[in-house]
């Protein structure tokens, strides 16, 4: 007989008098086990924290570094979901199935959009050892089509080892009005003036750890706290943006030079480090007009303000841990998931959904007219890549690339009870897959051979604990491969071979570069021609690693991977029927890109009944079908290009079927018609429609979940009549995508 998976140690007679009770041993962690607080920043470059050379105010993170260690030779995967998969499992990202973002499943083992159950997360490993486990903030580790109210939930945080979850499941969200999930269900953000999700996330984190400590102070906890900072949309309260007035007027070249000098003063980079030339495509500041400089300056102010705002609220968590006596025996790990991003392009976008859907920025006059909106609720900003170049100082290239600008990122580890060499810099080469083995060793746990009946793959990371007390210890890591969107690299014993792939070109034509990183921190001196044999050996090592870790087949597709014809039970239909109050997240919605469709709404209204019938997206991009002043309106928001159809006459009272019908007439182009009881009542040309992503915010029925996609109304604008159902019929004239979007 077993009891709680342990052999029953008592005896059972006919009565309690002749029986002996027995209780299983309680699950307890090793004595003195520390708490773990892991803080993940998003798209924050190597040089963007004060303690890594920035002029940006990050006093809380700087204090964490002063009480711990900064690692200047720490590497990630160059993009978000894969880094998080490595971080939580201690394995390489292709090994666990997360080649790129969790939105993509290409039908190959290395790119499934989910973490293999053969790779337990830290939460799954720590919870059986007696830890409470909390996840707060960005997840982006579940297939997005699985994040509807129907699930499946197997890759949501609670099913991957976390006791509690509060945050957003997709890769980005509106920081002023986020798409929130609590545990296993979607919720509306708190209705409070000036709400910002960063403050809310810290409130939730504080609530979780204080409740845990109040109830059971001896039980350690693992808090996984992932901010949206500084992924687009860049959103920050105005006082934080205004704090940097005038600070960036000198431009990205000057800021880069200042950071470079400061990094040498701080000992973050070696004295002999060279500052490489500007990345191709980044203009000199003096080449910009005064108006272009003014706009670019405001964008960087917003980014800096967002980072300072996050730092300040992180300080509230740190203060709370101190107050409740949990700070000293806590291992703090703070990192960025990849380098600063090039996704804003040369001039930036005050609406990143334009970039995502292949649109050019609006005219400089239009942008300047709205310059004060940048960083606020009516913007979805991504800054110019010149600022990203400065953010990655002194490194080349950006997020997505396997050069150092994409993969070498800031890391701070602080553990008052376990690290005495505080304020120091560590130079050992390490990778994000090394964090989980490090934490397990610090706690005193072995990775499990089996989890929930599933045999576990070996740990592929290398513990960093040896470096805590020994600055001079040689790097324990033997090698590390990289691959992202076709970009590739291989590091072995201080040498790195790397290639920047040109999308659509043959991989055989990629030009490989060679750097001796132990003597060339910034990858400034290419030794490929001088050391061809060494380069060839490293390339061979890369191919070996690619075969070992499920990297193959090489795949540089971007737009096409959003449209892979994978069977999806939730979306592989031609008819979708939704009912009032339903909310369906983005990739769980019907794919309405480059295909004809009709949205039919059965309703009953009296005179004066108005409101949303169906909405998708938010202020940055999407569409809304609604009744306003009695008229049926369809506002198609193509990233601020609005195509609007309005019924010529007001709707009659009574039972009606109204519809918005899109007819595809060309590649990502068509026309829209409004119908009432089958009769056309309005139309609009739609010369350019969404080609990659309508929005992270999905479909809401009978109300508008997020800030309205249409400027014609605000708020949730619920329909005041009776809405029976919404039926979306998708035609079979979809055109397979071409290579429209190039992220380069």
Properties at a glance:
744 residues, alpha+beta, Alkaline Phosphatase, subunit A, Arylsulfatase, C-terminal domain, 3 domains, 10-stranded mixed beta sheet
Unreliable spans are: 738-744
The outline comes out as: globular
What is the number of independent domains? 3
Enter the CATH topology name of the largest domain.
Alkaline Phosphatase, subunit A
Radius of gyration: 27 Å
CATH architecture of the largest domain: 3-Layer(aba) Sandwich
Give a short account of the largest sheet: 10 strands, mixed
* CATH hierarchy, class of the largest domain: Alpha Beta
The assigned structural class equals alpha+beta
Instruction: Tell me the CATH superfamily of the largest domain.
Output: Alkaline Phosphatase, subunit A
Task: Count every helix, treating DSSP H or I runs of 4 or more residues as helices.
Answer: 14
pLDDT average, as an integer?
Answer: 95
Based on DSSP secondary structure assignment, what is the total number of beta strands?
32
Order of the strands making up the biggest sheet: 9-8-7-6-10-3-11-12-4-13
Beta-sheet strand percentage?
15-25%
End-to-end distance: 61 Å
Helix content: 10-25%
């Amino acid at each position: 007989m077993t009891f709680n998976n342990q052999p029953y140690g008592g005896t059972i007679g006919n009565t309690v008098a002749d029986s002996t009770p027995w209780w299983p041993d309680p699950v307890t962690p090793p004595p003195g086990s520390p708490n773990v607080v892991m803080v993940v920043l998003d798209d924050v470059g190597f040089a963007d924290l004060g303690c890594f050379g920035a002029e940006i105010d990050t006093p809380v993170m700087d204090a964490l570094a002063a009480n711990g260690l900064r690692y200047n030779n720490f590497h990630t995967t160059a993009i978000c979901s894969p880094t998080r998969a490595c971080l939580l499992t201690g394995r390489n990202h292709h090994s666990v199935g997360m080649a790129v973002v969790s939105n993509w499943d290409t039908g190959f083992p290395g790119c499934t959009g989910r973490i293999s159950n053969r790779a337990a997360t830290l939460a799954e490993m720590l919870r059986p050892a007696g830890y409470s486990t909390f996840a707060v903030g960005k997840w982006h580790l579940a297939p997005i089509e699985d994040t509807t109210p129907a699930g499946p939930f197997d890759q949501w945080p609670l099913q991957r080892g976390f006791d509690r979850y509060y945050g957003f499941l997709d890769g980005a969200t509106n920081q002023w009005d986020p798409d929130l999930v609590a545990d296993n269900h979607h919720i509306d953000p708190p209705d409070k003036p000036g709400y910002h999700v960063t403050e809310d996330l810290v409130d939730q984190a504080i609530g979780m750890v204080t409740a845990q400590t109040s109830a059971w102070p001896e039980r350690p906890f693992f808090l996984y706290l992932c901010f949206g900072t500084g992924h687009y949309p860049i959103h920050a309260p105005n006082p934080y943006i205004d704090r940097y007035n005038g600070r960036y007027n000198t431009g990205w070249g000057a800021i880069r030079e200042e950071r470079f000098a400061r990094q040498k003063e701080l000992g973050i980079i070696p004295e002999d480090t060279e500052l490489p030339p500007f990345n191709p495509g980044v203009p000199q500041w003096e080449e910009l007009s005064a108006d272009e400089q003014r706009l670019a300056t405001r964008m960087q102010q917003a980014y800096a303000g967002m980072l300072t705002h996050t730092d300040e609220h992180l300080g509230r968590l740190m203060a709370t841990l101190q107050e409740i006596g949990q700070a000293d025996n806590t291992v703090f790990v703070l990192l960025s998931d990849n380098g600063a991003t090039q996704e804003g392009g040369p001039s930036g976008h005050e609406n990143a959904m334009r970039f995502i859907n292949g649109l050019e920025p609006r005219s400089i006059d239009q942008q300047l007219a709205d310059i004060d909106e940048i960083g606020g609720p009516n913007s979805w900003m991504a800054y110019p890549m010149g600022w990203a170049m400065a953010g990655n100082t002194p490194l080349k290239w950006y997020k997505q690339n396997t050069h150092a600008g994409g993969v070498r990122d800031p890391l701070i580890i602080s553990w008052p009870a376990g690290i005495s060499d505080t304020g120091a810099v560590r130079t050992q080469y390490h990778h994000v897959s090394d964090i989980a083995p490090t934490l397990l060793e610090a706690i005193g746990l072995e990775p499990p051979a089996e989890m929930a009946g599933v045999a576990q793959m070996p740990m592929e990371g290398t513990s960093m604990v040896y470096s805590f007390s020994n600055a001079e210890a040689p790097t324990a890591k033997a090698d590390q491969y990289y691959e992202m969107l076709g970009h590739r690299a291989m590091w072995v014993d201080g040498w790195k071979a790397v290639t920047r792939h040109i999308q659509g070109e043959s991989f055989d034509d990629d030009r490989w570069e060679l750097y001796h990183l132990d003597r060339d921190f910034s990858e400034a001196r290419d030794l490929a021609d001088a050391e061809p044999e060494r380069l060839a050996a490293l390339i061979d090592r890369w191919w070996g690693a690619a075969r070992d870790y499920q990297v193959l087949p090489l795949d540089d597709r971007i737009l096409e991977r959003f449209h892979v014809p994978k069977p999806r039970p939730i979306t592989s239909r031609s008819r979708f029927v939704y009912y009032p109050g339903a909310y369906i997240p983005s990739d769980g919605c019907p794919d309405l890109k480059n295909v004809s469709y009709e949205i039919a709404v059965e309703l009953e209204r009296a005179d004066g009944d108005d409101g949303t019938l169906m909405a998708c997206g938010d202020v940055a991009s999407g569409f809304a079908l609604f009744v306003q002043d009695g008229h049926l309106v369809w506002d198609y928001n193509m990233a601020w290009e609005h195509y609007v159809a309005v019924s010529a006459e007001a709707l009659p009272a009574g039972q009606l079927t109204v519809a918005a019908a899109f007819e595809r007439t060309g590649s990502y182009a068509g026309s829209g018609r409004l119908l009432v009881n089958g009769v056309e009542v309005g139309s609009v040309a739609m010369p350019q429609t969404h080609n990659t992503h309508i929005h992270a915010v999905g479909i809401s029925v009978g109300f508008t979940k997020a800030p309205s996609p249409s400027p014609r109304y605000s708020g949730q604008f619920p329909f005041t009549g009776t809405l029976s159902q919404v039926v979306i019929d998708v035609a079979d004239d979809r055109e397979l995508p071409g290579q429209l979007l190039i992220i380069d």
